[in-house]
Batch of 2 targets.
Target 1
Amino acid sequence: MATLEIRDLHVTVEADNATKEILKGVDLTVKQGETHAIMGPNGSGKSTLAYSLAGHPKYTITGGTVTLDGEDVLEMSVDERARAGLFLAMQYPVEVPGVSVSNFLRTSATAVRGEAPKLRTWVKEVKEAMERLNMDPAFAERNVNEGFSGGEKKRHEILQLELLKPKIAILDETDSGLDVDALRVVSEGVNRVRETGEVGTLLITHYTRILRYIKPDYVHVFSAGRIVESGGAELADKLEEEGYEAYTKGGASA
Ligand SMILES: Nc1ncnc2c1ncn2[C@@H]1O[C@H](COP(=O)(O)OP(=O)(O)OP(=O)(O)O)[C@@H](O)[C@H]1O
Ligand SMILES: [Mg+2]
């Protein structure tokens, strides 16, 4: 079983001509087959963690390690990360003009699998995955993310997740515009890949509402650039009732 290990991760960004430390020693282990939720207030660094794992150039790793099965993830190019089995929803460009969803998915699958999927089985695979997500077949011919609604972006993300079958998936569910329908699509997709037992999921959110549909094995509270508490699914219920105040005293978070 593949294991993603994050040890004492420190990350800075350049903003307003100053270097700001955002992640201040993150420790986390995610194994294939496990579902983890990271929750925390706005500005605590959750998306920064996701971007850092994705290899976004804006984020500088100043300390710590990230390994997947002992291999140094931080040394890998974005493509190599995907091939190693990491799925990072946000590593993909916001808009890809002139590239259809269908071509984009095949290119991604080729990168991940190391060879182009056979056209005939691939077309069937995509069709079936789209049906499961209640997606109109015409969607496959649209340009990636061009004019996609929030819900369509999410469906596209889950479509990739199901087709690319990663070992570890990191999903940043920050979009406050998700309606019940999109929420259900994301949840069902995540639960489907979870049932295979072959995908480890790290779900980042500040809402507990998605956790009504996805029961995480582990919940971690993120505050001021670190994980400050970990527990089981019951921790999410506690956060729903009590909020994050207990974790943010001292004005550590925006
Ligand atoms: N590229 C950047 N340039 C400048 N500041 C940044 C950048 N990325 C993150 N930050 C700052 O780092 C802090 C953490 O931001 P981040 O987006 O990681 O928080 P978050 O926990 O995902 O919040 P939210 O729940 O609102 O999505 C914020 O103060 C943010 O302004
Ligand atoms: Mg965020």
Note: Residues 46-47, 172, 174 surround magnesium ion (ligand 2) (CB under 6 Å).
Target 2
Amino acid sequence: MYVRQGRFTKGQLDKAGEFTISVPLENPDPQINKICGWQSGFNIDKVKEAGLELVDADTINTPGVKQYPLTIECKVLYAQDQDLSKIPEDIREKTYPQDVDGTY
Ligand SMILES: Cc1cc2nc3c(=O)[nH]c(=O)nc-3n(C[C@H](O)[C@H](O)[C@H](O)COP(=O)(O)O)c2cc1C
């Protein structure tokens, strides 16, 4: 899993050391995707704004999401910075421009 350093998600991951991946079994809800994929937890409460219903996980303390009921419960085993020099130049320039603030 790749998470940019400036994401709200990064701080949450560092604190919790675990996370869930919530997969829809039917058509994904466009409103949930829009809020969770484009808004930041720095600015809004995504659970509230997207109307997520949280359900306890079986093996970790981080909940899953009722609307997306295939829940993969994960623990962070290790983290490392991406090695930009290993990414093909065209992708690096397009996706990881170094003169742009990548926080959000
Ligand atoms: C389809 C899709 C895939 C995404 N994948 C990633 C990803 O792999 N890593 C990442 O850091 N951001 C990814 N993003 C961007 C974050 O979801 C987005 O910036 C979000 O607003 C971050 O919220 P946060 O600040 O609460 O962490 C993706 C967005 C979309 C729509």
Note: Residues 2-4, 7-9, 37-42, 104 surround flavin mononucleotide (CB under 6 Å).
